[in-house]
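User: Here's a chain of 474 residues. Predict its fold as tokens.
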Amino acid sequence: MSNDGTPGQPGQPQWDETNGEWVSGPYRWDEQSQQWLPRQASAPAAAAPANAEPAPAAATESVAPAVGQDAAATSPVQDAAATSPMQDAAAASPVQDNAAPSAPYVAPVQTAAYGAAPAAAYGAPAQTAGEAAPGQKKGLGTGAIIGIIAGSVAVLAVIAIVIAMLVIPRTDPREAAAQSAAKVVQDYLTALADSDADAALALLVDTPSDATLLTDDALSASNDAAPIADISVPEPTPLASDDEYSHDITASYSIGGKPVSGTFSVVDYDGSGDWRLMSGTVDLFIGSGTGDLDITLNGEPVDGDSVTVFPGTYHLETTSPYHTLTGTDTVTVSDPADYSGDFSDVNVELNEKGLAAFRQSITDAVTACLASKSLVAGCGIDIPETISDGTKIIDGTITRSLDADGQATMANLKPEDIYGDPMQVRGPYIGSVDVTADCESNGQRLTGCTFLFLPSLGSPLVDFTTDPVTVRWD
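Assistant: Prediction complete.
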């Protein structure tokens, strides 16, 4: 309150005996912080009557009360027209250090100018509700802060949406579908290159019923022989509007360093975005030439005329100790539509061990049969006791031998080409057998009898299903 009682205007600094502090209207001087602060719930200092006669500045002075009877002297208040109570504490502090005595405070005589315009003298209006104290900034209320934050968030959201609409291009659904289809092909070929059969199968519409060769081991053998690498799936062309659920993706890659390309049909039947390969395997034809021979494809046992495989390289072998395969025994399947490779020209032959077993078994059988003195000798050269002219051959007296052609054949036994079952290998026709024996004709027993048109050694059949191998004669 001002000296003339006007609310909201700072008045002349006065000493408040009750609280022991300098006051000026609604403010008090805080000695610790050296600044004017709003007063608490304390009564305002007494103000000069509005009609008080200002005393002449040179003749009349008013003395401010001291703190207690023997309080230290206080510093005089500066001229109101020159110094505001809000100025620097060093220049405008109404209270000096109590440790040093000084002259009593002498208030200058009010003038008409001071009484009429106290605000100009101190330069600070009285504090009102919600306002900050002199020398302090007014803080924002909680509601105002929340409003500012909410408004900022809304503005940022609008800006983000505008940027997204201007900067981020909208994706054509057909283009997105084509990219999804291409990714399936990329993932499928990567799974093959990584020898991950399960990952590859998971990308197919249907799992083939024959999964004999659809294994990690079979793929590993394929990649060991001819690795799949250099996979490239070009940026696809967006799907046509009338064909939005299927797409053909052409990819390039290499198998064993040889560049190949393949076209993969990818479908999304229900439009759910679950794109899969219509087909990712090939039925590789093996043929029937191997018969009952034990064979493997990339180390996996196989049975039948064909087997389902992934794209890759496949080597056909046999586990038989007596046989070998000739012809095209390695085939590369480039893609699910590649039926160019098969094993139709594969042939089965006896290896060295098989050839030795073949010859030895025939030789042993023929030797045993020729050595027999009995009518029943085996090897297809059994002879009857009585021949067509009535001559009786005496059992136990028989001698058999091969002619020159038969001996030459036996010295150079060669198997015939194997057709059908390679476990049954046919030998060559050996020839006729010379037989001499005692005989009885017209009641007389004769020695050194010779005979014509007796059974000869035919073509032996060596059976490799037995151990040791055996020989049969037709």
